[in-house]
Amino acid sequence: MNKTPLPTKENLEMKWYVVDAEGQRLGRLATEIAMILRGKKKPSFTPNVDTGDFVVVINAEKVVVTGRKNEQKLYHRHSGRPGGMKTETFDQLQNRIPERIIEKAVKGMLPKNAMGRKLFTKLRVYTGSDHPHAAQTPETLTINTIPARN
């Protein structure tokens, strides 16, 4: 019988990529990162198998949004207690925890199940241009989004 071979851990090659977020648009950057994490650009892609790679994002504080999203885009979190909803704008969150902006954007583009939660652990986001993953010898990945107008 002819069967399509499924990828296994033994015959999968996991790579590490470094993505520079400086001057990139948030949504377009997040979609590319989500596709790499999911493994959709690989010929061995299978929807129910984790075939994705690891992604390290640097310069997270320099990601940009268009229009008036700086003041209008809202991020919500809840403490779990009554009245515990906290809301802040893009600018406020970028000043406080800039890594969380990219993490939330990418997490929203991954599957909403156990595999999506596993894929999310392969994303590392850092402010500044330094990261502690030099031992994994990551490849630099250039994502060509629409450049931001200044």
TrEMBL record:
<dbReference type="InterPro" id="IPR036899">
    <property type="entry name" value="Ribosomal_uL13_sf"/>
</dbReference>
<keyword id="KW-0689">Ribosomal protein</keyword>
<protein>
    <recommendedName>
        <fullName>Large ribosomal subunit protein uL13</fullName>
    </recommendedName>
</protein>
<dbReference type="GO" id="GO:0022625">
    <property type="term" value="C:cytosolic large ribosomal subunit"/>
</dbReference>
<keyword id="KW-0687">Ribonucleoprotein</keyword>
<dbReference type="InterPro" id="IPR023563">
    <property type="entry name" value="Ribosomal_uL13_CS"/>
</dbReference>
<dbReference type="InterPro" id="IPR005823">
    <property type="entry name" value="Ribosomal_uL13_bac-type"/>
</dbReference>
<dbReference type="Pfam" id="PF00572">
    <property type="entry name" value="Ribosomal_L13"/>
</dbReference>
<comment type="subunit">
    <text>Part of the 50S ribosomal subunit.</text>
</comment>
<comment type="function">
    <text>This protein is one of the early assembly proteins of the 50S ribosomal subunit, although it is not seen to bind rRNA by itself. It is important during the early stages of 50S assembly.</text>
</comment>
<dbReference type="GO" id="GO:0006412">
    <property type="term" value="P:translation"/>
</dbReference>
<comment type="similarity">
    <text>Belongs to the universal ribosomal protein uL13 family.</text>
</comment>
<dbReference type="GO" id="GO:0003729">
    <property type="term" value="F:mRNA binding"/>
</dbReference>
<dbReference type="GO" id="GO:0017148">
    <property type="term" value="P:negative regulation of translation"/>
</dbReference>
<dbReference type="InterPro" id="IPR005822">
    <property type="entry name" value="Ribosomal_uL13"/>
</dbReference>
<dbReference type="GO" id="GO:0003735">
    <property type="term" value="F:structural constituent of ribosome"/>
</dbReference>
